[in-house]
Amino acid sequence: MTPLLIYRDRLLPISETFIQAQASALKRFRPQFAGLRRVAPSLPFNEDPIVVTTRCAPASHVLAAAYAATGVAPAFTRRAQAVGAKLIHAHFAPDGAHAMRLAERLGLPLVVTLHGYDVTVRCEFANKYAKLWERASLFICVSEFIKRKALEAGFPDAKLRVHHIGIDCSKFLPGNGKRDENRILFIGRLIEKKGLPFLLNAMRDVQNKRPRTVLQVIGDGPDRKDLEAMAAQKRINCEFVGSKSAEAVRASLGGCAVLCAPSLTAQNGDSEGLPTVVLEAQAMGIPVVSTYHAGIPEAVLSEETGLLVPEHDVAKMSEALLRYLCDWEFARTSGARGAEWVRDRFDLTRQTQALESIYDQVAC
């Protein structure tokens, strides 16, 4: 197997299972994670990641910041060189800018995946990424939407390639267990672009018509206290359960009536790339209610595998949710079509084979 360095500044937040899953699906390349530091809690690794610092804060932050500014960390560079990698794959553009220094020191080609905020949050892109645009061999865009935003930001057209990460269809399977026809599920970080206030407002109408309906919120983030207060103030029947393991998330997905992903564009421009949770739900036969936002229309077929509504349109959101809750046959048909759709277009094994072909082209 060909050695490969996978770079992420912070290794590896539990919300980033999509990065871990892609690495685990590689067949011809052997991944070794590397970055500034390991976060806590983090996803598990088969091998300890190579990090700039393992010290406790605040010393670790100082060392990590020094490397980010200078690219100098001799022990880190030596360990990375010993891997014998043929290329570096960084996730997110800011991380790519840091990985660029390592790529230069090791004389390796660099691939950077653009996921969302890195090309949608408004900034002076040319000042921030001009060197990366020149040095990187290729930028992988997780959706057509992200490619369009990257072009608008100034990323070089000739170096942009759309590639959907996909999901592990051997783990996300339609189940035969009983689903709770009164349970709506939200999964995601509790930040502005995930749109949970939009969903909470829609839930008022849903619960007025179906009082037994419950919204379960899986995830955590800086907005949690405000969102819990909002739900209490509006008297929404809502369970905030925090972050859960991948196994617990799959169990919750398999037992809900519908997944809602009410994503929207944040005030600073921050947008999704293509949230994998909508693929995971469809693969399990769960219908999706979401928005015409970012790459979501590339992943959800409205009126077939799910229902899409405009961002911020509370009335249409509640209408879509009630349609699935009140028409179980429509929900069943959408779920079956969704499972078929994801296996045809977003299977992780097939998508990772395509990724390895991209690696071959870059590393040759």
The main sheet orders its strands as 5-3-1-6-7-8-9
Which value, in Å, is the CA radius of gyration?
21 Å
**What's the rounded overall pLDDT mean?**
94
Report the strand count.
Answer: 15
Secondary-structure content class: alpha/beta
Work out the helix count: 15
Please bin the fraction of helical residues. 40-55%
Largest sheet: 7 strands, parallel
Strand content: 15-25%
Poorly predicted residue ranges? none
Q: Which H/E pattern describes the elements?
A: EEHEEEHHEHEHHEHEEHEHEHEHEHEHHH
Net shape: globular
N- and C-termini, Cα separation: 15 Å
Descriptive notes:
This protein is an alpha/beta fold and 364 residues long. Helices cover 44% and strands 17% of the residues. The chain has 15 helices and 15 strands. The strands form three sheets. Strands 5-3-1-6-7-8-9 form a seven-stranded parallel beta sheet, sandwiched between helices. It has a six-stranded parallel beta sheet with strand order 12-11-10-13-14-15, sandwiched between helices. Strands 2-4 form a two-stranded parallel ribbon. α4 (93-106) packs parallel to α6, α8 packs across α13 and α11 (276-283) crosses α14. The longest helix is centred in the C-terminal third of the chain and has 18 residues, at 328-345. The mean pLDDT is 94.
Secondary structure layout plus pairing:
Blueprint (H helix, E strand, L loop, with lengths): L1 E6 L2 E2 L5 H8 L4 E7 L1 E2 L11 E2 L7 H12 L3 H9 L5 E4 L1 H14 L3 E5 L2 H4 L4 H11 L2 E4 L2 H10 L6 E3 L20 E5 L8 H14 L4 E5 L5 H10 L4 E5 L3 H10 L2 E4 L14 H8 L4 E4 L4 H4 L6 E4 L4 H13 L1 H18 L2 H16 L1
Parallel strand pairs: 1-3, 1-6, 2-4, 3-5, 6-7, 7-8, 8-9, 10-11, 10-13, 11-12, 13-14, 14-15
Helix pairs in contact: 4-6, 8-13, 11-14
